[in-house]
Backbone:
């Protein structure tokens, strides 16, 4: 199963628990890609996102997502606190909902996203952009793509 398939499955309730079913249900793949673009562009890529999560008290959970074992779940409140109001507001706007709904969606999506972006339990040298480039079907494997270019690609997809 590919990254996009995994994220769509999580967003449609394929994740663990009732929370996964209630907070992210109904998201389409393009919306998920838009969320990922906002998140990665505004958090400083994968390394910046992981830093925010660690500083926000989610270091143990985030490490489980990077590692090769089971992914620890996180609460929407914990995700919201770690990502901060500004980023949560951007994500809520992308989703067309409240910050509480965005926090629930991120609590569902982040474990799988970070797990998929850190193969073999390692932070990739390209800050996760290669896998995201593959996700978007860029065919370049993310080579030479920075967070701004990724956001531009996502924006183009969302306008179609």
Residues:
């Amino acid at each position: 199963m590919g990254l996009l398939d995994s994220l769509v499955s999580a967003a449609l309730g394929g994740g663990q628990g009732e929370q996964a079913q209630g907070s992210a249900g109904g998201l389409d793949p393009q919306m998920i890609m838009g969320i990922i673009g906002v998140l990665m562009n505004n958090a400083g890529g994968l390394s910046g996102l992981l830093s925010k999560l660690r500083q926000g008290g989610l270091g143990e959970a985030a490490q489980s997502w990077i590692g090769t074992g089971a992914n620890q779940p996180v609460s929407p409140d914990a995700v919201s606190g770690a990502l901060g109001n500004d980023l949560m507001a951007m994500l809520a706007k992308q989703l067309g909902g409240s910050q509480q709904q965005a926090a629930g969606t991120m609590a569902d999506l982040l474990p799988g996203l970070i797990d998929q972006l850190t193969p073999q339990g390692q932070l990739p040298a390209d800050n996760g952009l290669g896998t995201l480039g593959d996700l978007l079907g860029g065919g370049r494997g993310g080579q030479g793509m920075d967070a701004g270019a990724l956001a531009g690609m996502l924006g183009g997809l969302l306008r179609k």
